[in-house]
């Protein structure tokens, strides 16, 4: 599988990454089999978070990658603390919390370093300077190799770009959510920061899920885009998944398309696309988006 630069970090990642949130923590053998098979098929980027399944997801991932830990880029996230009663979580974005929280992640992941540590959210009112200090300290201590954001908020992204050495921003990006194309992708590229694209198949709407409204699009508008997509599929002889991922990966700001799977069959279907992924031409993109209006971020600007 093709490898791409993870922004300014010096790390390389597979152009398809595995979003591990979808793995079932109560089925450890299946999770381990999926992760092993993903690695065997060339996937080298694995993403989790301390929030997922109250830490059990990190445990499942950590156990599953032991045999090839140094051959992959392992990513996790920090910033959310589960309440003691398990009723939900609260936002925690302080230097002290981040420095403390990584110890739990390192233990659950069975590793002494995390390749990419990401702030799992963020608001413009956060103490940005001390958050950056925390990540820089962890980097100096060798506990992380690079850090980034997981955020779709333009004002937060711009704040970190102006003050920090982030390597990546994880954000939703797909044929139905192209809001970052207004300015964020160009801004990130100019700063040698990459996009880790999540939600690349729009919750399955771009593959086989029943049509429904999505963001500000009506069901009719979603159907229109799918008709465009099917015309391209017919022309190329590929499938919806391949064309949808190719669109995302054709953006030079994108390092990897992070896709979640929960079964080996889904993984097989995903990795079957790797030989067919291709850069879409400007003409192909125009055909895909013919008659489809552009959406913009309306909040946190």
Instruction: Please work out how many helical segments DSSP would assign.
Output: 10
**Biggest sheet character:** 8 strands, parallel, barrel
**Oligomeric state of shown chains:** single chain
| Secondary-structure-derived class | alpha/beta
The proportion of strand residues reads 15-25%
CATH class: Alpha Beta
Average of the residue pLDDT scores: 95
CATH hierarchy: architecture = Alpha-Beta Barrel
CATH topology: TIM Barrel
Query: Roughly what percent helix?
Result: 25-40%
Cα distance spanning the termini:
36 Å
**Shape descriptor:** globular
CATH superfamily: NADP-dependent oxidoreductase domain
Summarize the helix and strand pattern as letters.
EEEHEHEEEHEHEHEHEHHEHH
**What is the number of strand segments?**
12
Order of neighbouring strands in the sheet with most strands: 3-4-5-8-9-10-11-12
Number of domains: 1
Give start-end ranges of low-pLDDT stretches: none
Question: Which value, in Å, is the CA radius of gyration?
Answer: 19 Å
InterPro entries: AKR, AKR2_Oxidoreductase, NAD(P)_OxRdtase_dom_sf, NADP_OxRdtase_dom
Organism: Sphingobacterium puteale
Pfam families: Aldo_ket_red
GO molecular function, one term: oxidoreductase activity
Short description:
The strands form three sheets. The protein has an eight-stranded parallel barrel, surrounded by four helices. Strands 1-2 form a two-stranded antiparallel ribbon.
Could you outline the blueprint of secondary structure elements for this entry?
Layout: E1 3-5, E2 12-14, E3 16-19, H1 28-40, E4 45-47, H2 56-64, E5 73-78, E6 80-82, E7 89-91, H3 95-109, E8 114-120, H4 128-140, E9 144-150, H5 154-163, E10 168-172, H6 184-190, E11 194-198, H7 219-236, H8 240-249, E12 254-260, H9 264-271, H10 282-288
Parallel strand pairs: 3-4, 3-12, 4-5, 5-8, 8-9, 9-10, 10-11, 11-12
Antiparallel strand pairs: 1-2, 6-7
Helix pairs in contact: 1-2, 2-3, 3-4
């Amino acid at each position: 599988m093709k490898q791409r630069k993870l922004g300014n970090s010096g790390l390389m990642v597979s152009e398809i990454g595995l979003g591990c949130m979808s793995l079932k923590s109560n089925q450890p053998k299946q999770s381990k089999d999926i992760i092993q098979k993903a690695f065997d098929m060339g996937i080298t980027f694995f993403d989790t978070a301390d929030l997922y399944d109250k830490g059990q997801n990190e445990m499942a991932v950590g156990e599953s990658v032991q045999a090839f830990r140094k051959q992959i880029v392992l990513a996790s996230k920090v910033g959310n603390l589960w309440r003691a009663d398990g009723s939900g979580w609260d936002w925690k974005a302080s230097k002290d919390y981040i420095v403390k929280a990584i110890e739990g992640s390192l233990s659950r992941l069975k590793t002494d370093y995390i390749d990419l540590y990401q702030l799992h959210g963020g608001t413009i009112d956060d103490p940005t300077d001390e958050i950056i200090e925390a990540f820089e300290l962890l980097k100096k201590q060798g506990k992380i190799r690079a850090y980034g954001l997981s955020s779709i908020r333009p004002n937060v992204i711009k704040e970190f770009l102006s003050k920090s050495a982030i390597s990546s921003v994880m954000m939703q990006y797909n044929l139905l959510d192209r809001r970052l194309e207004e300015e964020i992708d160009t801004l990130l590229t100019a700063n040698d920061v990459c996009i880790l694209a999540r939600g690349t198949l729009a919750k399955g709407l771009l593959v086989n899920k029943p049509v429904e409204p999505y963001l500000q699009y009506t069901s009719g508008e979603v159907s229109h885009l799918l008709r465009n997509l099917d015309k391209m599929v017919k022309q190329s002889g590929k499938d919806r998944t391949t064309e949808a991922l190719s669109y995302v990966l054709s953006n030079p700001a994108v390092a990897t398309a992070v896709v979640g799977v929960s079964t080996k069959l889904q993984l097989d279907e995903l990795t079957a696309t790797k030989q067919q992924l291709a850069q879409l031409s400007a003409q192909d993109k125009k055909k895909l988006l013919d008659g489809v209006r552009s959406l913009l971020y309306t909040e946190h600007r």
